[in-house]
């Protein structure tokens, strides 16, 4: 079973505008609301591929009701821990650029935390836990460590910045920084001349597999067995939200269903690319259409 962890789920309120003027009244010509949070994005991708993931985390208030109802409509399972506080709303403005305003999240009580950790404790040892996204301020910045110390599961973790280093000794199945995040982690400029050195450092420090997104230049994959690079695929960027989460979901789906690491990486690339070219998380049909275009070679070839 695959579990996705969204400690700080949200309603993602997307507003499209012809233009944006700071300090003035702006009117959208279209708006949409989606259940948000990186773990939820991964779950949507996994569901589209045919998996039945279970969402874990904290949820509350009328915003939480909307998130749960939205997941039910998508036939996605959830075992969220109910809280007294309100789940957050994140506003995404789309015009000739993209601007995001993300809320901090609700306060969570000690009893609510204990109830959540009990659910983590009861996950079978053969489960895979996908950890991603922000932590509500009331939980403290090291809360993911409490999760990992509660149950020694296979897991992936997708968090920004140098804090990722604190989790490598837990031996994650996958980490997926982009090149800017890799620079933040190691505090140095990274380019094609040293990117493998620093991607390998993540692997040497404990990550079993590493994907580094290079934006328009594709991505690389590093494990103890191989170093691969995927060429970028031509297409129109429609929505960057969820593309990285889709890469994680595609890789985990592939590994769980018996694909080789190379083939799981190809599926990860196809999943991330297809979502980037879609309004929402990509459909299975579109992912496999993109998969036909994915070209992966040994790094340097």
UniProtKB/TrEMBL annotation:
One of its GO terms (cellular component) is cytosol. PROSITE patterns: PFKB_KINASES_2. GO terms for molecular function: 1-phosphofructokinase activity; ATP binding; tagatose-6-phosphate kinase activity. Residues 6-277 form the Carbohydrate kinase PfkB domain. Keywords: ATP-binding, Kinase, Lactose metabolism, Nucleotide-binding, Transferase. This is Tagatose-6-phosphate kinase. Its EC number is 2.7.1.144. Catalyzes the ATP-dependent phosphorylation of fructose-l-phosphate to fructose-l,6-bisphosphate. Pfam families: PfkB (PF00294). GO terms for biological process: carbohydrate catabolic process; D-tagatose 6-phosphate catabolic process; lactose metabolic process; small molecule metabolic process. It catalyses: D-tagatofuranose 6-phosphate + ATP = D-tagatofuranose 1,6-bisphosphate + ADP + H(+); beta-D-fructose 1-phosphate + ATP = beta-D-fructose 1,6-bisphosphate + ADP + H(+). PANTHER family: 1-PHOSPHOFRUCTOKINASE, 1-PHOSPHOFRUCTOKINASE-RELATED. Belongs to the carbohydrate kinase pfkB family. Belongs to the carbohydrate kinase PfkB family. LacC subfamily. The keyword Kinase applies. SUPFAM superfamilies: Ribokinase-like (SSF53613). Pathway: Carbohydrate metabolism; D-tagatose 6-phosphate degradation; D-glyceraldehyde 3-phosphate and glycerone phosphate from D-tagatose 6-phosphate: step 1/2.
